[in-house]
């Protein structure tokens, strides 16, 4: 009796367990790749659009994700698509006991040896990744865009769900142009929330790897839905006459080399004649 009853209960629980695991897959995918639309999620997870939307509605109701209007490039016909990102509550639900254990260990280290010890630990941890990435970026050459693309590939392979896109208008004089490097997942997000040394060490490593000072604009640790780093790129100057400041600099350079303007040469000749007289 009890065995048969247990079997009936197990059979009834199986669909619920499967539903829960699928929902967790959807939440994890949004964490790693968000902002992401329902259509893209369905394609990447091998689920039907109806199934994905059911899980999305459930996750929104639980407060684990939030939706917003997708970028114009992702829109199709009909109503605007919505792109989803993990909320603060969603990130907390993804945290494991290991996150809490790591935080407690770092608190102990900070109390026993000081904040500088935590900083050195963060730098050492990032240095190991930097050393590995340096060889891969070296193969990309000196072009900053190519090096950033190589960094994105390496970060994604290691679970950071990285992406990059150009920002700024290169055709506008004085416009700030660059690459926006994003990371949709951070293995040490929970720790970095209390110890920003990990974010600082990673940012410094990006600067060294890319050969330019980069700027961290947003982090998952501070509650943003993605870590965002701005990588400046060289501005290509449009063809045309050189600005006045450039012409002045050129004139000064020419004079420094010993070639003087015509008026100065004439004055020198007249002085020479006067001396002859």
Keywords, please?
277 residues, alpha+beta, Arc Repressor Mutant, subunit A, Muramoyl-pentapeptide Carboxypeptidase, domain 2, 2 domains, 4-stranded antiparallel sheet, 3-stranded antiparallel sheet, 11 helices, 7 strands, 12% strand, disordered N terminus, ArsR-like_HTH, DNA-binding transcription factor activity
What's the short version?
Pfam families: HTH_20. About 60% of the residues lie in helices and about 10% in strands. The chain is of the alpha+beta class.
Account of the 3D structure:
The protein is an alpha+beta fold. The chain has 2 domains: 16-94, Arc Repressor Mutant, subunit A, CATH 1.10.10.10; 97-232, 2-Layer Sandwich (Muramoyl-pentapeptide Carboxypeptidase, domain 2), CATH 3.30.1380. It contains 11 helices and 7 strands. The chain has helices at residues 2-33, 38-45, 49-61, 88-94, 97-113, 115-139, 144-157, 189-194, 197-210, 244-256, 262-276; strands at 36-37, 65-69, 82-86, 162-167, 178-183, 215-218, 227-232. Strands 4-5-7-6 form a 4-stranded antiparallel sheet, covered by helices on one side. The chain has a 3-stranded antiparallel sheet with strand order 1-3-2. A hairpin with an 8-residue loop joins β6 and β7 (227-232). The longest helix has 32 residues, at 2-33. It starts with a helix and ends with a helix. This is Transcriptional regulator. One of its GO terms (molecular function) is DNA-binding transcription factor activity. Residues 11-114 form the HTH arsR-type domain.
């Amino acid at each position: 009796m009890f065995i048969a009853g247990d079997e009936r209960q197990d059979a009834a629980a199986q669909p619920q367990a499967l539903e829960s695991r699928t929902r967790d897959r959807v939440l994890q995918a949004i964490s790693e790749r968000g902002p992401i639309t329902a259509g893209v999620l369905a394609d990447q997870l091998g689920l039907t659009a109806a199934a994905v939307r059911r899980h999305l509605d459930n996750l929104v109701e639980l407060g684990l994700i939030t939706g917003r209007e997708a970028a114009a490039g992702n829109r199709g016909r009909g109503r605007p698509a919505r792109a989803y990102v993990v909320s603060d509550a969603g990130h907390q639900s993804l945290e494991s006991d290991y996150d809490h254990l790591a935080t407690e260990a770092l608190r102990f280290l900070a109390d026993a040896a000081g904040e500088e010890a935590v900083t050195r630990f963060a730098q050492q941890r990032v240095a190991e990744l930097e050393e590995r990435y340096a060889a891969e970026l070296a193969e990309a050459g000196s072009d900053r865009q190519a090096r950033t693309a190589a960094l994105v590939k390496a970060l994604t392979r290691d679970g950071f769900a990285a992406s990059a896109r150009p920002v700024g208008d290169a055709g506008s004089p004085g416009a700030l142009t660059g690459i926006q490097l994003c990371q949709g997942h951070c293995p040490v997000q929970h720790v970095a929330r209390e110890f920003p040394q990990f974010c600082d060490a990673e940012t410094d490593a990006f600067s060294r790897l890319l050969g330019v000072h980069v700027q961290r604009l947003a982090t998952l640790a501070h509650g943003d839905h993605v870590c965002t780093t701005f990588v400046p790129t060289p501005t290509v100057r449009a063809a045309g006459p050189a600005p006045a400041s450039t012409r002045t600099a050129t004139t000064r350079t020419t004079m420094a080399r010993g070639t003087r303007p015509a008026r100065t040469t004439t004055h020198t000749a007249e002085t020479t004649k006067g001396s002859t007289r």
